[in-house]
């Protein structure tokens, strides 16, 4: 399966973790930005400078919002300076209070956007198959203080929208979605962005469509959209007239220029991500204990994350060791979302025993790792990474033994001397 020129380690002491040369001269990151049409971006930046209109809902932001709304098939899109502020705005505009049910298996921004407004995130466990909030468990966690639910379409994989919608309706709760990962993805053939009261995207540099920093709230609710738009601009309803408490959540024109340029390459980025995903799938297929998270074949996906679950009982090597070995080779795998929001401050102090109700989250945060993808990596590098994972798993026992051995005096000296 592997071409011979990608076979880079002959024995375990060739691994960089044992002070040998890394397999890659430069670091390969998860989240390397896709740049797209540089000339188009620069032309837009020049245009923006010529027009001397840099922010405050300028021409590019308006165009960006229109394109996003059209692409999804939703009435309103409000572009923001990032996804976190977009979450905060949507939460506030929806009037969420008290407690809101969220998964702990998400980026910390989902929880912080609530706590920042003194709303308590109540962490609910996930379905281990989808990595998204488990509607069955969620139902059991509703209390009189619960005002809403934030589902997170983790990896762009949709939540069980139907079940969540039903639960929200039956219990008179507001439902919104953190769709930070899910631009370009669908649920039952409908584009994500159309569900709940509102959905929130992130266009951070590490997302497959980026606006340097950026976010957006999409909704079909006219009143909500109007409120959010006002709140994004300090609550101004025309000059000298403020009608809400608002913030500065505006996207600037340079970000929108990048966002528009990025959108022009959307199909190409997805194609590259898909090709990378297929390559990982082929190359990792026969490693027992290493499973690649599978995207729904029948849905639209952006394939922007390559997610592995490592079953130590089968591989003989645990996720953290694998991450360390790869890191030494300059493959910077990431442990999203380790250790889970409930194990981060302030939540671990507020709810020290939250983990007892989150068995699947606890398990998954120990097993998941992400690998580099996107336009910055080529097929040959992917094959090389997979070959290394193969090699590590095949030699797990000897590697584990060698890693616990005291360092030789030569290595010890090298490590002491290195900066
Ligand atoms: N909800 C969810 C579910 C989210 O995942 C996120 C963000 C949000 C809400 C909030 O949206 P934003 O407010 O961010 O718009 C990264 C991103 O910063 C974050 O946007 C993302 N999710 C999260 C999953 O990943 P970090 O701290 O792990 O990675 P970071 O930003 O250090 O970047 C990762 C790697 O990418 C770097 O080591 C190097 C490379 N990189 C990064 C940047 C920024 C580059 O090569 N060039 C770059 O410009 O959070």
What does this molecule look like?
Helix content is 40%, strand content 14%. By secondary structure, the chain is an alpha/beta fold. The strands form four sheets. A seven-stranded mixed β-sheet has the order 2-10-9-6-5-3-4, with helices on both faces. Strands 11-12-14 form a three-stranded antiparallel β-sheet. Helix 2 runs parallel beside helix 8 (253-264) and helix 3 (83-93) crosses helix 4 (108-115). The longest helix has 19 residues, at 266-284. The chain is globular. Bound molecules: ligand T4K. Ligand T4K is lined by residues 29-33, 82-84, 106-107, 109-110, 152, 178, 180-181, 202, 204-206, 215, 336.
Task: Jot down its keywords.
single chain, 419 residues, alpha/beta, 7-stranded mixed β-sheet, 3-stranded antiparallel β-sheet, disordered N terminus, disordered C terminus
- Residues in β-strands, percent: 5-15%
Helices and strands, in N-to-C order? Answer: EHHEHEHEHEHEEEEEHHHEEHHEHHEHHH
**How many separate helices?**
16
Rough outline = globular
Query: Compute the gyration radius: what is it?
Result: 23 Å
Largest sheet: 7 strands, mixed
- Assign the structural class, choosing from mainly alpha, mainly beta, alpha/beta, alpha+beta, or little secondary structure: alpha/beta
Bound molecules: ligand T4K
Q: Alpha-carbon distance between the termini?
A: 39 Å
Residue share in helix: 25-40%
Outline the low-pLDDT stretches.
1-5, 409-419
Count every beta strand, where a strand is a DSSP E run of 2 or more residues.
14
Mean pLDDT: 94
Question: Biggest sheet: strands side by side, in what order?
Answer: 2-10-9-6-5-3-4
